[in-house]
Each structure stands twice: as structure tokens, then as C-alpha cells.
Amino acid sequence: MALSLIWRGTYLLLFIYVIFVSHFCNGFYLPGSYMHTYSTRDEIFAKVNSLTSIETELPYSYYSLPYCQPYGGIKKSAENLGELLMGDQIDNSPYRFRMNVNESVFLCTTPPLTEHEVKLLKQRTHDLYQVNMILDNLPAMRFAYQNGHKIQWTGFPVGYAPPNTDDVYIINHLKFKVFVHEYEGSGVQILGTGEEGMGIISTADDEKKASGYEIVGFEVSPCSVKYDPEKMAKLHQYDEASSVDCPLDLEKSQVIKEQEKISFTYEVEFVKSDTKWPSRWDAYLKMEGARVHWFSILNSLMVIFFLAGIVFVIFLRTVRRDLTRYEELDKESQAQMNEELSGWKLVVGDVFREPNHSKLLCVMIGDGVQIMGMAVVTIIFAALGFMSPASRGMLLTGMIILYLFLGTGAGYAGVYLYRTIKGTSEGWRSLSWSIACFFPGIVFVILTVLNFLLWGNNSSGAIPLSLYFKLISLWFFISVPLTLLGGYLATRVETLQYPVRTNQIAREIPARTYPSWLLVLGAGTLPFGTLFIELFFILSSIWLGRFYYVFGFLLVVLCLLVVVCAEVSVVLTYMHLCVEDWQWWWKAFYASGSVSVYVFLYSINYLVFELKSLSGPVSAVLYLGYSLIIAVAIMLSTGTIGFVTSFYFVHYLFSSVKID
After folding, report:
1. How far is Cα 503 from Cα 71, in angstroms, rounded to an integer?
2. Most buried residue, 137, 183, 322, 470, by most Cβ within 10 Å?
3. CA 173, CA 263: separation in Å to the nearest integer?
4. Which segments cross the bilayer (predicted)?
């Protein structure tokens, strides 16, 4: 059967890749997976990530602003593929902490601000840019109050602009609170387990104990303080500074203006906590409206299961009745029935006629198998806890690696379908190349256009040319050969045989009172009903800087989406066959693939009503460009589910009918 033959090889390949990736994960150190214990007075340096804003979505380097720089110069941290693509730029910083030492420290005084620096600071402040700091792989957390509600944020603002004045004030004093948990272990000694090093765990004698302190929380309270430049000029970096209370009076705050020298200071307080190291991310992963999230998901699941059950029961009864009535008749009665009745039985000589643009259909099915396989494996791994939020960029890196290696499944599925339709293997190489280039080509074109916009704005989110060449090399040397290998394997297996012969002359399709595309477009509403709630949380995670870590819910929604896409496509295919429309191939694909239209429209709705603060055409184009990539990927994957299921259904339906 079509479904079993196409997916059997894909499942085998997925199993091999899961084993490979599992071995990879066990064999190498994942950042943030091992705890780092510190002794009293051990030095710990914070790191800084790119400046980000929910208004512009254009990240910039931390040191693009006149901040204090560390001794020895700026050094970039090693970043993985996902971090680079997300625009992260993690650098070292001069912020030094000494374990369990509460202190108030002077950092530096800047030279007099130039006109360009003043303009840049004011612009970043008005655009609500946030400074993102990291300590022991934990982002700095800030609490604020709005309308009487306590709101949790990561990072702190560059500055603030009071409503009743034209002045802008810079954040130049930070009050850090570091939460530590005292650790005592027996029989195990942990050596060199920093986030940049290899985790080495060695067993010690029973009498030996490894003890120290783990960092389990990192909070910051920012404020603006105006210092006396003459007094500050006498201090050196890390000299003791007097502790200050954050002033409420604007006259005591540091205004941003030309020729002004700005002094930066910070305080740190270490607080003992009962929170253990494995639970330190819980505070970051708490989602607002959790109860609403739970009830919305459960309500959606119940509604979708109820509707899908009704559709499935009606469908089974209808088809079973038609088949039973048809098979109980003798040959003469069947011939008479064929002359008298209309419906799907009359298109028996045309139902497997080659569709228009059959090569393009095979290309899209191949890419859909590749994308769907990537999504399934990624979400399963994330639901099992492999994609830790401490491992920045791991999710995107894993998706890219899986996509590259699943090229074999794409080539196999596309070429197998092509041979089934054409009846020959001729041209399988060009088809495999088309499969390897189709979706990556779309993504490459969109990313290139968006990258020019980012380059024009000097954003750190722009993909470097070196990374472009690396991505192209990975695609050319991994994905393309594996796609060709999958295509070659598909030419070695026996093709699926149609249960009926195709007539030489095509049957005329009766006129419809309404266009068929309207029914196809409307069919996407049911799969969208399973997606829109999770889509809201995913978009909030991407564009509002919130953590998304309910992959268990996402896995359930994905399974539900697969079932609904399959049912919707099969029902729509049956409806078209019943009105003697034998051109079901593309309709079956777009019946479930049309959910991407609603996803893209919902993204526009989210832009208009949820991202009201998004400013400038560049930010809107970036948002729409990335949304378009997501919509295309959803169309290919969901369309593939619907088409393969419909193909299996049509093959089963007509193989069950007695045909001379």
C-alpha cells in the first residue's frame, strides 16, 4: 500500500537517526547540563548577550553602546549554529562576582559622551531595548509592577524616559541578588564542569566529599544615579564604592546629554536558597495564565476529538454502505448500476490519471516528509527534556541537523511517488535535485532579503557571510547527497500497482455550482482549530522573549493535528469523487495544507493586535518574512499528511471494488 511503503522506509531511517542522536547526546557535553560548584570567594564573571527589543526585533551588540569594557578586551563566547541564527552574541563583561562576598563596586567612568553616542543611547531607550546578562548560564531576572500586578522580565532596560520631560536617563547602577544553594555530595567529585568546558565526573573514595555553592537564581534591580565626576575619577575598576539607594528624584538620576561623563557601579548580595540546582529554571519557565492554557488546550482537544469522531463515523457508514451494495450485485446488475448511478464508482477509469504538474507534487511531498520527520523527532526529544533552555540554540541546531539527515526520507518518498505516477524511473536524478533545492531555496531567498535589511540597520542579528557559506556547505555536502541516496533507494524497490486501469480518454468533470477551491480552503479551518492556542504561546515565545517549554502539550497537539489533517483530506477527497471529480491529487494536498493560510493570517492578526508596539516597516517585514517561512513549512508537512492518507484511501477504495 502507498502509505505503508512510503512511510516504512522513513520510519526505519527515523529510528536510525534517533539512535544516532541519542548516542551523540550521551557522548558529548551539553551546555548547562552539569552543575558548577563554587567555593567561597571564587570569582565569577557575568556575560552579556545582544540588546533586544520587542518594538524593533532588531538585536544589537551590547558593546555598540558606551558601556564599560573588561580587561583584556572583548572576547566572544563559543556559539552554536542555533545561537548565531537567532542573533545571539554572547560576550564577556567586566561584571565580577565573588562567591558569598556582598560588595558595592565601582566599574568605570566613560569619556565625555559624543553627539553620536547620545543619539544612540536615546534611540535605544525610546525603542525599549533590554540589556541581557547571564551568570552561570542563568539570565538576569527583573521584577516590575504594572497596574498592581507583579510582572517577571529577563534583562533590564538601557534607560528610561519619564512622560513629563524630554530628558532621557541611563541605567548606570545595578543591584544584583545571587541565590545560592549549598551543595554537599558523597562519593562523587565534580571537576571543571563550567558551561564552556567538558563535564568530568569522577568517583572518589567514600570518605571524600565534594561541597560548595551552586548558583540557583540571578535577579537584578536597575536604577539611575548621578555621581560626582571628580570623586569617581579617583577610583579604579573594582574599587569599593558606597552603597546607594535608587533615587526617586529625577534630579539625582543620570541624564543622557553631550559631554556628560557617566559612571557605572553595581552592588551584589548573595542569598542562600533552598532551591536545588535541577529546579533553578522553574522560575523562568512559569507561564502567565497557566490555568487558561490548560483549560484551553483540553477544551480544544475535546472539541476536535468530538468533531473528528462524528466525521469518521459518518464516513465509515457511508463508504461501507456503498461498497456493500456494490459488491452484492452480480456483473449485469453492476453494469446497469454504473449506467444509472453517479458517484465515485463512475470515475474508476480516471481516478489514477496523472495529475497536472506531477513532478512539482512529488517534490512537495518529498520536502513535506522531510519537514514532518524533523518536527516529530525534535518535539519528541524536547518533550523528553533533551532540549534544555539552558542549552541556548540547541532546539534550532537540532532541527537543522535533523533536516539535513532526513534528506534520505525526502528523496525516497518523492522518487517513489514519481515512479508510481509515471511508471518509470527516468528522471529520478533531476527530481532528487529539485527536492533537495525546493524548500531550502525558498528559505534561502527569504533569509537573504531579510539579511540585507538587518545589514542595512547594522544589527547583530544579521547572518555573517561565513555562516552563509557554512550553511550552504552543510546543505550541499550532507542534505543533497542523502537526498540523492534516498532517490536511488526508491528506484530499487517495487512500485505500487494501481488496482484499476486508466482510460485513454479523460472523463468530463460535471460543472459545479461553486468553485472547488472554496471547499478546499474551508477545510483548513478544522486543523487550524487544533493549532491556534499553541500558536499564540509559540509566537509569544519568539517575539516577546518569553520561554516556551510545554513541549508535552505540543506533542499532543501535533498528534491531534496529524489525525485531523488525515481525516479532513480523506473526507474532502471522497466528496470530490462522489461528484465525479477525479482530479483529487492537488485537492487532497491542499485540503490539509490550507491550514497554512490561516496560520499566516493569524500571524498578521498577532502582529496587529498583540505586537502593537512593533515600530517601523523593517520590523514588520522581518516578522512577515519569518512567518512566511513557517507557513510554507506547515503547508508542505500538513499537505503531505493529507495527500498520503488520501492516496492510501483511494487505492483501498478502488481495490475493494470488483472491476473487469
Report:
1. 81
2. 137
3. 9
4. 12-30, 294-316, 360-387, 393-418, 430-455, 467-491, 517-543, 549-577, 589-609, 621-654
Cα dist from 299 to 6, 244, 292, 303, 522, whole Å: 34, 52, 10, 6, 22
The grid coordinates listed for 276 are: 536545588
Other Cβ atoms closer than 10 A to 17: 19
Structural contact between residues 461 and 87, judged by C-beta atoms closer than 8 angstroms:
yes
- What the block records as the C-alpha cell of 40 is 567561597
What is the model's pLDDT at position 188? 40
Of 310-324, 470-484, 538-552, 600-614, which range is least confident?
310-324
The grid cell for 614 is 512593533
Judge contact between 586 and 356, C-beta under 8 A.
Answer: yes
C-beta of residue 378 within 8 angstroms of C-beta of residue 405: no
Find where cell 534520505 sits.
Answer: 408
Owner of C-alpha cell 553616542: 117
Between CA 247 and CA 249 the distance in angstroms is 5
β 149-154/156-157 pair status: unpaired
Q: Which three cell numbers stand for residue 410?
A: 525526502
- 307 CB-side CA count, 13 A: 19
- Which residues are paired to 150 by β-bridges? 145
The CA-atom distances, in angstroms, between 454 and each of 156, 371, 457, 464 are 23, 27, 5, 11
The one-letter amino acid code at 197 reads G
Report d(CA 344, CA 340) in Å as an integer: 13
Q: Report the distance separating Cα 649 and Cα 660, nearest Å.
A: 21
Where helices occur in 244-357 by DSSP H, the ranges are 282-285, 290-327, 331-340
pLDDT digits (tens, 9 = 90+) for 124-151: 999 999 999 999 989 999 987 777 677 7
Nearest to 543 by CA among 6, 86, 36, 42: 86
Question: What pTM was computed for the model?
Answer: 0.82
At residue 164's C-alpha, the angle toward residues 162 and 168, to 5°, is 40
Report the 3 state secondary structure along 518-576: HHHHHHCHHHHHHHHHHHHHHHHHHHCCCCCCCHHHHHHHHHHHHHHHHHHHHHHHHHH
Query: Nearest CA to 225 among 188, 155, 170, 270?
Result: 170
Do the beta carbons of residue 380 and residue 555 sit within 8 Å?
A: yes
Query: Cell triple for residue 183?
Result: 551543595
* Euclidean distance between CA atoms 89 and 58, whole angstroms: 13
